[in-house]
Design a protein that fits this description.
The chain has about 475 residues and is α+β, with helices and mostly antiparallel strands. The chain is built from 10 helices and 4 strands. The N and C termini lie far apart (about 85 Å).
């Protein structure tokens, strides 16, 4: 019966487990922490109910939990964590079988073979996989940033589209009054019909502008739906009726320091550098020979005949080994260079967005407290002058058009200011300087302490979701 031990061994091996490495344990703990909030029990949690009074934080939470791009990045990360176990595990044992036949079967030898990579190879492979998994983790964070930035962008643009329509409607009412004045002046013979026609032409122009703005609402609403992860067959969500600003209580220098320390994109690139470092160690260990051990037993012999055997690989091709090391070192240097380039781009991005914020704030201050009040006063004076016959209708409409322009510029400055504030808070958390993969995250609920817990704008001092007045030394 002892000869059948070889056949029983695979059954015993089936219950074996390898020894997890440090990076694997940390990654699995991180997965448990994130999954508990993001996908508890492997299922999507109940989504917040969206209403016209929903807060910005509720919108961001909804997008984070519902956006398929974030979910895809999440499961990519989970797959990479499982890849650590695969990389650090021993190869599967192999059953062998041999027969000697001389008219009849003279020997029947089942066996078992096990391969053993060279010393440290499995641990090095696990270290590479762990670092790559960390990079996937930051890719998941970046996807949540990208998703929620799309929500913020659509949120602000939808609100300020309504403001543009409001300004144009106020101007249309003003033009209607001017048209009535011109009509009355024409009826008493003080002005020609040309003034009436000019007023009507301007009314028609503004009416068309309002129609174009109202038509653009559907396109922005489609972007808003997509940002929330809602399909074309799902009803459009209600658009919030109140604006929540993005307070920022940091100076440019403080924001830059925070970005360099916590930027998700930089952290991901740092993980890629660590993966390259681990790959160098793995490349050096390729010089270590691999071995295989096996045991066969001739079950037709009595007593049983055992045949142990083994193999050892010979790392003979030195040029190949040297090329593997050189390749790994070059990959590390390339990763370090990309990280440095991203840091430089981040510095420039913070400076640019901080300037746009300051510029928009100055423009807004000028328009709200100087230009608009004075232009309204100027319009009243022009109206009185037209009625008294001291100015012509062209001067009156020019004053009216200037008021319209200032009103629209005020809305544009508010839009630019809010988007700049949102981008500044997001750059600190991981928005790429290019802005092409930008994002914010509501991920306070999914991001555990020591990991993703610092990744949302809500985690910044005075972060997104508050409706306080913006302060700071930008």
């Amino acid at each position: 019966m002892k000869t059948y031990v070889i056949l029983i061994l695979p059954v015993l091996f089936a219950g074996c487990k390898g020894m997890p490495i440090k990076g694997e344990k940390e990654a699995r703990q991180q997965v448990q922490s994130v999954a508990g909030a993001y996908r508890p029990g492997g299922r999507k949690p109940e989504l917040p109910v969206l209403t016209s009074q929903s807060s910005l934080s509720n919108l961001l939470t909804y997008a984070l939990l519902n956006q398929p791009q974030v979910e895809a990045a999440y499961f990519d990360w989970l797959a990479s964590v499982e890849g650590i176990t695969v990389a650090r595990s021993l190869p599967d044992p192999q059953l062998t079988f041999q027969m000697d036949i001389e008219e009849v079967v003279t020997s029947l030898m089942p066996g078992l073979m096990m391969s053993f990579p060279g010393a440290g190879k499995l641990r090095a492979a696990g270290a590479v996989a762990a670092a790559e998994s960390e990079a996937q983790y930051f890719a998941f964070k970046a996807a949540s940033l990208q998703s929620a930035y799309a929500v913020e962008s659509a949120y602000y643009q939808l609100y300020f589209l309504g403001e543009r329509i409001r300004v144009n409607r106020e101007n249309l009412n003003l033009l209607a009054d001017l048209a009535k004045i011109a009509q009355a002046q024409n009826e008493v013979g003080k002005v020609t019909l040309q003034d009436v026609l000019r007023a009507q032409i301007e009314q028609n122009r503004v009416e068309t502008e309002i129609a174009n703005l109202e038509d653009s609402h559907s396109a922005l609403l489609a972007e808003y739906k997509a940002a929330l992860g809602l399909g074309a067959d799902q009803p459009a969500p209600p658009v919030p009726q109140r604006l929540e600003s993005t307070p920022l209580y940091l100076t440019s220098d403080q924001l830059l320091a925070l970005a360099l320390a916590r930027n998700t994109r930089l952290q991901g690139m740092g993980a890629e550098v660590r993966a390259a470092e681990a790959a160098i160690d793995q490349a050096y260990r390729a010089r270590m020979p691999d071995s295989s051990l096996g045991l066969m037993a001739d079950v037709k012999m009595n007593p049983a005949l055992y045949r142990p055997w083994g193999t050892v690989s010979v790392p003979l091709w030195r040029d190949k080994l040297a090329a593997e090391v050189a390749q790994a070192q070059a990959n590390k240097r390339a990763g370090e260079a990309r990280l440095t380039a991203e840091q430089l781009a981040l510095v420039a991005a913070v400076a640019e967005k901080a300037f746009l914020y300051r510029e928009a704030s100055r423009d807004l201050e000028l328009l709200q407290h100087a230009l608009l009040p004075k232009q309204r006063q100027s319009l009243e004076i022009a109206r009185s002058g037209y009625l008294a016959g001291r100015i012509d209708f062209l001067n009156l409409t020019d004053t009216e058009q200037t008021l319209l322009r200032f009103g629209l510029e005020e809305v544009e400055a508010r839009t630019q200011r809010e988007l700049s504030l949102a981008e500044l808070s997001l750059i600190a958390q991981g928005m790429p300087p290019s802005g092409t993969e930008a994002g914010a995250t509501a991920a306070q609920l999914t991001l555990p302490a020591g990991g993703m817990g610092s990744a949302g704008p809500a985690m910044l001092p005075g972060g997104s979701g508050a409706s306080k007045k913006t302060k700071g030394g930008m």
